[in-house]
Specification:
Keywords: Amino-acid biosynthesis, Aminotransferase, Cytoplasm, Lysine biosynthesis, Pyridoxal phosphate, Transferase. The protein is an alpha/beta fold. It is built from 15 helices and 17 strands. Strands 4-12-11-10-7-5-6 form a 7-stranded mixed β-sheet, with helices on both faces.
């Protein structure tokens, strides 16, 4: 599946991106130009199995034909229309989205990203309750805009911006600790923000007890329970939404990433009681709900339902984790996850192994905390590809470098020819 060229072609595109980019990203030394399903190709034609999927965006696979067709057709009709002006494609999308949401979540604020969805969630929580304090989770990640950043635990994200990040109204509790949560939620708490599975925090699924107690405690205190489904939503964990695993219905959910098959999109979905307390004009967005993203989202959600992607994620995720747990390596501490949201915690830094996977094996993976290798493949990944990923991971853990071996073999063959 993964061709391995013996020499690296100099890239003018990589040079240009490194020259003009802002510098906030640590760039890979590769330029990707094409994707299909769970495979992406670089400019030299080398293929990679993509277990990054745009940070969990490409759940239905790269360039899903239904989404491509929907974008092409809508682009020829109408691409932008503000939400103050009703649009047929937006109305159709909203109807489709509400049809798959947990009961009672039937109002939607449309935007362009997960961070924007979290910003909206904070504002709706404040107007919905008349309160201004929040409870968020240690190891939680809610985004990097100033408002969302206040809810994000990792100090390295917050500290460079000092007091501009208003964390004084946020109480952080240990994820899974019911007693800490009970002590933190008061009659001043607007909302508790929870990820059903902590992604950036190391791929840590919540427990049934913690999720159900969070629902009970927030109801008792008059606070909202807001589930952050930005990474876990849209079949990733084996359900349409990870919240469904716990039998809990929140007051709101933040959504984004996989909702439109690769097109920027976001939403905060909520109950009518929460929506109705936001004053008219209290929040807004220029591009949110544009017809192009609506067409893509409509096609993506229908593909998820038609192709049984929640069930696929459940079955393939179980197979993937079983295979990872079967790896014979003392370097692995734990394999954990839910559906196709998988983390392998190592006993040493994960970065060198992630780099080796990409450079030597043609497998792209993510870090989640310094010790965890995170696998977020498209749900369309095949069992054959899963086997290739696991075999590659085992090789890099064991220090086997097939590219180096191949290069040594070619060098030996060349030397042998010269001596003939």
């Amino acid at each position: 599946m993964t061709a391995t060229p013996e020499s690296k072609t100099h890239s003018k595109w990589l040079d240009a991106e490194l020259k003009y980019d802002s510098g906030v990203y640590n760039k890979h030394e590769v330029v990707m130009v094409r994707g299909l399903g769970a495979t992406v190709w670089d400019e030299n034609g080398r293929s990679y199995i993509d277990c990054v999927a745009g940070y969990g965006v490409a759940n239905i696979g790269h360039s899903h034909p239904d989404v491509v067709k929907a974008i092409q057709e809508q682009a020829g009709k109408l691409m932008i229309m503000p939400q103050s002006v009703p649009n047929d494609k937006r109305a159709e999308f909203l109807q489709e989205l509400v049809g798959i949401l947990p009961a009672g979540l039937d109002r939607v604020f449309l935007c362009n990203s997960g961070t924007e969805a979290m910003e909206a969630a904070k504002k709706f929580a404040i107007t919905g309750t008349g309160r201004q304090r929040f409870v968020s989770m240690k190891r939680g990640f809610s985004g990097r805009s100033l408002g969302a950043l206040a809810l994000t635990w990792e100090p390295k994200y917050r500290e460079p911006f000092g007091d501009a990040v208003d964390s004084k109204n946020v109480d952080f509790v240990t994820y899974g600790n019911v007693e800490e949560l009970r002590a933190a939620v008061t009659d001043q708490t607007a909302a508790v923000i929870l990820e059903p599975v902590q992604g950036e925090g190391g791929v840590r699924p919540g427990t049934m007890e913690f999720m159900q107690e969070a629902r009970r405690i927030t109801k008792e205190k008059g606070a909202l329970l807001i589930m952050d489904e930005i990474q876990t939503g849209f079949c990733r964990t084996g359900k349409m939404f990870a919240t469904e695993h716990f039998g809990v219905t929140p007051d709101g959910m933040t959504l984004a990433k996989a909702m439109a098959g690769g097109v920027p999109i976001g939403a905060f979905v909520m109950t009518g009681a929460v929506a109705d307390r936001m004053p008219g004009g209290g929040h807004g967005t220029t591009f949110g709900g544009n017809p192009l993203s609506m067409a893509a989202g409509l096609a993506a959600i229908r593909a998820m339902k038609r192709e049984g992607m929640a069930e696929q994620a459940r079955e393939k995720g179980a197979y993937f984790m079983d295979r990872l747990r079967a790896i014979d390596s003392a370097k692995i501490r734990e394999v954990r996850g839910m559906g196709l949201m998988i983390g392998v915690e190592l006993k040493e830094k994960s970065a060198p192994y992630i780099t080796a996977l990409e450079h030597d094996e043609g497998v792209m993976a993510l870090q989640a905390t310094p010790l965890v290798v995170r696998f977020l493949p498209p749900i369309t990944i095949t069992r054959e590809q899963i086997d290739q990923v696991v075999d590659a991971f085992e090789r890099v853990l064991n220090g086997v470098n097939p590219r180096a071996e191949r290069q040594a073999q070619l060098a030996a063959q060349a030397e042998e020819k010269q001596s003939e």
